[in-house]
Every structure is written in C-alpha cells, then in structure tokens.
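Figure 6 in text form: structure in, sequence out.
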C-alpha cells in the first residue's frame, strides 16, 4: 500500500491533467463553432476589437521599443568579444520578428486582456447576469465568448506586426544614436536579412497567442466559482494558463516553421 500510494497520486494527477485538456479543447471547439455560425453580435465584436487591439497599443509599444533597444545593446556588447558588432541589425530584426515580438506581445495580452476578460465574465456569473442572458434566450457562448475569441484571433497578429516594427525601431534608435551605426546601412541590412517566412511565422504566432489569451479568459471566467474568491481565482488561473500555453505554443510553432 505504501509503495503504490505515490503511483496512485501520480495517476490521479495525470488523469486530472488530461481531463482539463479535454475540457479546454471542447470549450475551444464550441467557441469557434459559435464564432462561425449566425447570429453574430457585431457590437460585441467591435467592442472586443477595440479593447484588445487599440487599448493594448501603448503597453505593446512601450514593451517592444525598450526590448529592441536592450537587445541592440546586448548584441553589440556580446558581439564585441568576437569582433562581430556589425551583426546588430540582423540579429535585432530576426530576434524581434521571429521570437521576442510575438512572445512579448502575447504575454502582455495575457496580462492585460486575459485577466480583464476572466474578471468581467466571472463577475457577470457571480451577479447572475449570465443566468439572465439564458433567461432571455441568448446563448452566453455566442454573446460573450465567440466575439472575444474572434477578436483575439483577428487583432493580436496586427499588434504583433506593430510590436515587431516598433522593436526594430528601438534597436535602430539605440544603434544609430549610441553605437555609431549608419542609419541607411542599418535599415538596408534589416530589410535584406528578413525573409517572408520570418514575417509569416510572426503573424501566425500572433494569431495563435491571441486565440489562446482570449480563450483562457473566457474559459476561466465561465467556469469561475461563486463570490469574490471565485472571481480572484478565475483571474489568476486564466493569466497563468494563458502564459504557459503561449510559451508552449511558441515552442511548437517555432519547431513547425524553423525545424531543420
């Protein structure tokens, strides 16, 4: 009995983990199904696009510009050890577009948007507003979840593109003002080094990360417990799950696009 107790605990944990994956997968399938079938709630979609996209621009821009500048400084400092300072434009471009841009934007969206969605929907559940929607013959999945997930899939790739450009500009500003790089040469090296696959992978990651962020907010919000503690747990769990899933999806997508 003593020897089998750890195995039993491991088995229970594994089964609970697999059950959670199944619940999330079914929730995602239902959300996408409702997003593609009428009726559509255009006002809710536009509001979600505004909240996820436009209102996230300041934090995305600030994060990207400082990351690009810091990346340029780090590459220049490290490259100086091997007399390879000239690679700063190329590495900043590929680092921002392939990896740092999408991941940082995804994590910022998880911190800002996922928590907001989870708290909003969980509060609606606590105050019985979701029950009121059902009473009024309005499907909560279609009215609350589908517009937010669809907005995440649409607008986060745009945010990633903006973040990539701002991040590259941050590296450009630091390199030309502090590191002695020629502005025209820096821009030319950046453009010549980037390939269409780099940009495609960045936007694809943005689409995946946006869907994950919105989906986790909706999933934890809809499944929250009653009371203030339920709202708090839903908000915390949604951000944790979104961040972990974004990093895991980044690893998988990087392998798909750039595996040798």
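Output sequence:
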């Amino acid at each position: 009995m003593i020897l089998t107790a750890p195995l039993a605990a491991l088995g229970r944990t594994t089964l609970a983990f697999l059950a959670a994956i199944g619940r999330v997968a079914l929730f995602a399938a239902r959300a996408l199904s409702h997003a593609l079938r009428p009726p559509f709630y255009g006002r809710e979609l536009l509001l979600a696009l505004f909240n996820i996209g436009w209102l996230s621009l300041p934090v995305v821009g600030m994060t990207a510009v400082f990351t690009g500048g810091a990346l340029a400084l780090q590459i220049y400092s490290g490259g100086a050890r091997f007399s390879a300072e000239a690679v700063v434009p190329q590495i900043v471009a590929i680092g921002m577009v392939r990896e740092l841009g999408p991941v940082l934007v995804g994590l910022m969206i998880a911190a800002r948007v996922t928590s907001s969605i989870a708290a909003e929907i969980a509060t609606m559940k606590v105050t019985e507003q979701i029950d009121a929607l059902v009473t009024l013959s309005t499907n909560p999945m279609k009215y609350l979840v589908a517009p937010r997930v669809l907005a995440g899939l649409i607008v986060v790739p745009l945010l990633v593109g903006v973040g990539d450009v701002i991040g590259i500009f941050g590296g450009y500003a630091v390199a030309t003002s502090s590191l002695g790089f020629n502005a025209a040469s820096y821009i030319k090296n950046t453009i010549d080094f980037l390939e269409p696959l780099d940009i495609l992978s960045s936007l694809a990651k943005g689409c995946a990360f946006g869907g994950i962020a919105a989906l986790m907010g909706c999933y934890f919000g809809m499944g929250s417990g009653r009371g203030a503690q339920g709202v708090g747990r839903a908000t915390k769990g949604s951000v944790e799950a979104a961040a972990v899933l974004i990093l895991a999806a980044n690893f998988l997508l990087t392998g798909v696009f750039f595996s040798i």
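Caption detail: The radius of gyration is 22 Å.
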